[in-house]
Backbone:
């Protein structure tokens, strides 16, 4: 299975490339192909030091979409609309959104678009044959890249298509100690996305770092 | 410290009475005093079997408010407005809301009132000198009464007054293995309340029961 990462040179994107490329063919996308190639080189070196093999290719965001079976949108909420406006070819793809619309004042709040969630907004921007799936929303960005540490968290997955949901849950369960949970249809993604500002508040007000969540 | 439970004869209220009365003076309130007295008798017997002492008193909801330092609103969201409309005397009290506005269709959604959350709505209904604090929102109702089981969960606490917040967090930390986390001001309670429909969806779609949450 080929996993394309749009925004694959950002913090979360690079961390996802590190965690996923030992198990899947990972296609790292960037606005500038040269940056994607550089990120892949860095990831390969990091994984080699750990004695791990990987499958990585650095390309443009557009090619990452074109080549992949599953496309992960590893971009901040504010970049979603401008990025999707430059890309085509999402027909028949599974599109994974870990995107959380968050605002910060003296604390963090959930600030969804009029569609109700980033996930529903993204669904509205893509062709009907694309299947949007919310996943990986609540994992601290820093943790993705810390290969020495297990990702021991629960991951809520929302999607309207059972087949696509199962595929994404399988990917989740293949990353470190992540455990995927079916959290219902895509319309329920808002209450998954909104856990992230809660975790950021917990971290901020209790002097903690990189707080994650487990369903127990 | 005296803890009054408005709605103390409901499932969560009775469970809270069981868990809190070995450590605090608990005043169980009900619309009908006779029901509150009966609940206290049942709780006393249950705790006696476990060899535990307790301090319990069954009264009306109004007297539970009047006598308590901390008042817990252990009532469903739909009962909040009619119940608060019948009660007075909240001046200078700490009022704890574990209330979650939830709707159910084929899945559970967060359905807050125009104020943004049950917590903010409750704050608007009470006198200014009352201090509203959101806590205990994400604990499965059934678990409160299962004394054989530890409550091994995280509890997010939102409040605008640091002193009141510390008092409530201390109460939380005195119940089983609950661990309190400062989750910011009361305005941030919406993203605490909305975790509950997520946990209900996780339970429903993964054939689990009484799912709770831990911040890790």
Residues:
């Amino acid at each position: 299975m080929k996993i394309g990462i749009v925004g694959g040179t950002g913090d979360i994107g690079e961390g996802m490339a590190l965690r996923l490329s030992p198990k899947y063919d990972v296609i790292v996308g960037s606005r500038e192909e040269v940056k994607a190639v550089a990120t892949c080189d860095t990831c390969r070196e990091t994984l080699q030091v750990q004695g791990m093999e990987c499958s990585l290719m650095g390309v443009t965001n557009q090619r990452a979409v074109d080549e992949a079976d599953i496309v992960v949108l590893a971009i901040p909420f504010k970049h979603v609309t401008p990025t999707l406006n430059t890309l085509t070819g999402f027909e028949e793809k599974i599109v994974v959104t870990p995107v959380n619309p968050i605002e910060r004042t003296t604390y963090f709040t959930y600030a969804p678009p009029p569609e109700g969630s980033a996930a529903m907004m993204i669904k509205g921007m893509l062709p009907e044959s694309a299947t949007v799936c919310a996943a990986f929303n609540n994992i601290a960005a820093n943790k993705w890249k810390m290969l020495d540490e297990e990702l021991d968290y629960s991951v809520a997955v929302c999607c309207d298509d059972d087949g696509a949901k199962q595929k994404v849950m399988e990917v989740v369960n293949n990353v470190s100690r992540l455990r995927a949970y079916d959290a219902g249809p895509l319309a329920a993604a808002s209450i998954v996305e909104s856990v992230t500002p809660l975790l950021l508040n917990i971290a901020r007000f209790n002097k903690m770092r990189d707080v994650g969540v487990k369903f127990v």
Observations:
- The first strand of chain B starts at residue 2 and ends at 6.
